[in-house]
């Protein structure tokens, strides 16, 4: 079918209005899937308790509430996942340069 995603997670050429009535809620479904996968990896015990952070809500990354806090949580989880995959990765600090942090994360992911 023309315009349909060819693989899971890919978006079609059409905008959200043309994709169907549920397209606006797709990000919430993705966030719930992410949360389920993180729970399977015991992120609460291994990542959050170590940094004294609260567990994620079902909509944490789906709604832009506090970009600085959300970015730091993303970086914390990314560093934890990279380390869990067997690549030592230094935990970013809250006030590190965001561009440098993302560059380091992407560089480490490319080395996989």
In short:
Keywords: Cell projection, Cilium. The protein is mostly helical. It has helices spanning 26-40, 43-48, 67-84, 98-110.
Our estimate of the beta-strand percent is under 5%
Average pLDDT confidence is 83
- Point out poorly predicted stretches: 12-17
Order of helices and strands: HHHH
Helical percentage? 40-55%
Helix/strand-derived category reads mainly alpha
What does this structure look like?
The protein has one domain. About 5% of the residues have low confidence. α3 packs parallel to α4. The chain is 46% helix and 0% strand. The chain contains four helices and no strands. By secondary structure, it is mainly α.
Write the layout of secondary structure elements.
Elements: H1 26-40, H2 43-48, H3 67-84, H4 98-110
Helix pairs in contact: 3-4
Main location: other
GO biological process, one term: non-motile cilium assembly
Pfam family, one: IFT57
């Amino acid at each position: 079918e023309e315009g349909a995603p060819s693989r899971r997670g890919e978006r079609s050429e059409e905008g959200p209005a043309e994709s169907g009535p549920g397209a606006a809620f797709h990000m919430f479904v993705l966030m719930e899937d992410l949360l389920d996968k993180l729970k399977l990896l015991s992120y609460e015990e291994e990542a959050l308790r170590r940094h004294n952070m609260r567990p994620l809500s079902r909509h944490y990354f789906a709604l832009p509430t506090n970009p600085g806090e959300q970015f730091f949580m993303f970086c914390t989880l990314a560093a934890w996942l990279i380390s869990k995959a067997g690549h030592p990765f230094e935990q970013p600090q809250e006030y590190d340069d965001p561009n440098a942090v993302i560059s380091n994360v992407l560089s480490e992911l490319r080395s996989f």
